[in-house]
């Protein structure tokens, strides 16, 4: 089969715009399919010949690093639609269903414009609605799990529909059943969110509260809240259209209380957050204190404004990203005795 280029949607208009990765790494696959109708997907998923070969669900490619030719089919959903369901469960609740192919940030802005509240803190996260439950995306004090009511998905092998209620998705930090037990077993087709008619700003995240206070905004409107968050976000993160990255490359590592206190006594300015089973350390702080912030290896660098982010300095390959990630992980392990885990998916 003819290899098809999986390219950066932002870097080169000549290349296909329907397959992309925000790191901007050119990559190829045996086959690339755009699916926009439910019957196309169910027919594909119940076809025995399809199920015998590897496949990869690709949303916006904003959490992926391609290191080699993908020897199988890449599927990109382009189904559309954001619908208010008329099954509101209480006077203030709204159930809103969004197609997996919708762009997440467009969905957030659409909800704000419609007066459906609850998504605002996750404004600006790149990628698609379909990946949101898979990744359990989160930002500024809100995670997808907090607002997802249910996920509608189709089974690979049979094409059968299954509705996963929130508790069945086994959401955890940047994790869900779709990345664990059911990895590659279901394709997310749409997601239903429980939103609200009444706007109650979520300003529990300290940096957000500080930014609003500095701007003299005591009670933000939904748009002011979203704008403030977007401002904070792009101060620390590279915009995909300007510099390639996969966002936070590493997860914040979870350590025991004992390990946290041991490190805190050695490094009093260590940044960490209490977590149910210990403490979550700020991976960016750890990386910065190994001296990697702003440094590079080959054409891949550690972003100079946020050490958690690896960036494409121009023409970088997936292997260069992995090599830099390994060097950073090694140094954090040696200096702090903490193992970094990748948030980005290496293909
Ligand atoms: C600049 C930048 C900032 C970021 N900021 C944040 C942030 O604040 N918070 C955060 O949580 N993330 C952040 N990210 C990471 C990324 O935006 C999220 O992980 C996002 O959910 C990925 O969406 P995507 O559509 O690009 O998924 P992809 O990267 O294409 O895929 C991610 C995973 O989901 C699977 N998948 C995708 N669609 C489906 C589907 N329909 N059915 C089944 N599986 C599917 C893929 O196979 C893959 O395993 C950021 C990334 C960038 C580049």
Label this structure with key terms.
347 residues, alpha+beta, Uridine Diphospho-n-acetylenolpyruvylglucosamine Reductase, domain 2, Uridine Diphospho-n-acetylenolpyruvylglucosamine Reductase, domain 3, Uridine Diphospho-n-acetylenolpyruvylglucosamine Reductase, domain 1, 26% helix, globular
Could you provide a short overview of the structure?
By secondary structure, the chain is α+β, with helices and mostly antiparallel strands. The chain has three domains: 4-77, Uridine Diphospho-n-acetylenolpyruvylglucosamine Reductase, domain 2; 82-196, Uridine Diphospho-n-acetylenolpyruvylglucosamine Reductase, domain 3 (2-Layer Sandwich), CATH 3.30.465; 244-346, Alpha-Beta Complex (Uridine Diphospho-n-acetylenolpyruvylglucosamine Reductase, domain 1). The protein contains ten helices and 20 strands.
Structure description:
This protein is of the alpha+beta class. The chain has three domains: 4-77, Uridine Diphospho-n-acetylenolpyruvylglucosamine Reductase, domain 2 (2-Layer Sandwich); 82-196, Uridine Diphospho-n-acetylenolpyruvylglucosamine Reductase, domain 3 (2-Layer Sandwich), CATH 3.30.465.10; 244-346, Alpha-Beta Complex (Uridine Diphospho-n-acetylenolpyruvylglucosamine Reductase, domain 1), CATH 3.90.78.10. 26% of the residues lie in helices and 26% in strands. The protein has helices at residues 38-45, 48-51, 104-114, 131-135, 144-147, 206-214, 222-236, 257-266, 283-288, 318-336, and strands at residues 4-6, 27-35, 55-57, 64-65, 70-77, 82-85, 93-99, 138-139, 142-143, 148-155, 161-165, 186-196, 244-248, 254-255, 272-275, 278-281, 296-297, 300-302, 309-312, 345-346. Strands 6-7-12-10-11 form a five-stranded antiparallel sheet. Helix 6 (206-214) packs across helix 7. The longest helix has 19 residues, at 318-336. The chain is globular, with a radius of gyration of 21 Å. The two termini are 20 Å apart. Residues 1-19 have low confidence and may be disordered. The structure holds flavin-adenine dinucleotide. Residues 22, 56-64, 77, 100, 125-128, 130-132, 134-135, 137-139, 178, 187-188, 237, 240, 245-247, 345 line the site of flavin-adenine dinucleotide.
């Amino acid at each position: 089969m003819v290899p098809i280029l999986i390219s950066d949607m932002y870097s080169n208009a000549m290349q296909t715009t329907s397959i992309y990765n925000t790191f901007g790494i050119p990559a190829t696959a045996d086959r690339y399919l755009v699916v926009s109708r439910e019957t196309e997907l169910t027919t594909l998923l119940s076809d025995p010949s399809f199920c015998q070969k590897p496949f990869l669900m690709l949303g916006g490619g904003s959490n992926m690093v391609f290191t080699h030719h993908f020897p199988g089919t890449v599927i990109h959903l382009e189904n559309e639609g954001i619908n208010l369901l008329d099954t509101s469960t209480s006077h203030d609740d709204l159930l809103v269903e969004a197609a997996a192919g919708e762009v997440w940030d467009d969905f957030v802005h659409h909800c704000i414009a419609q007066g459906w509240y609850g998504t605002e803190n996750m404004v600006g996260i790149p990628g698609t609605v379909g990946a949101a439950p898979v990744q359990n995306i989160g930002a500024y004090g809100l995670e997808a799990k907090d607002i997802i009511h249910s996920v509608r998905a189709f089974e690979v092998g049979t094409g059968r529909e299954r509705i996963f209620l929130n508790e069945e998705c086994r959401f955890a930090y940047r994790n869900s059943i779709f990345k664990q037990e059911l990895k590659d077993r279901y394709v997310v087709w749409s997601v239903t969110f429980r939103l609200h008619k009444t706007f109650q700003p979520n300003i529990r995240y300290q940096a957000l509260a500080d930014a609003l206070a500095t701007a003299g905004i005591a009670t933000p409107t939904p748009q002011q809240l979203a704008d403030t968050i977007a401002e904070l976000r792009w101060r620390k993160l590279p915009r995909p259209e300007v510099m390639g990255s996969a966002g936070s490359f590493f997860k914040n590592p979870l350590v025991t209380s004992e390990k946290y206190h041991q490190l805190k006594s050695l490094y009093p300015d260590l940044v960490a957050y209490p977590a149910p089973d210990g403490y979550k350390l700020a991976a960016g702080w750890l990386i910065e204190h190994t001296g990697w912030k702003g440094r590079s290896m080959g054409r891949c660098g550690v972003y100079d404004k946020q050490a958690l982010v690896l960036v494409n300095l121009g023409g970088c390959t997936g292997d260069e990203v992995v090599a830099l990630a390994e060097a950073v992980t090694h140094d954090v392990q040696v200096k702090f005795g903490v193992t970094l885990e990748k948030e980005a998916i290496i293909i």
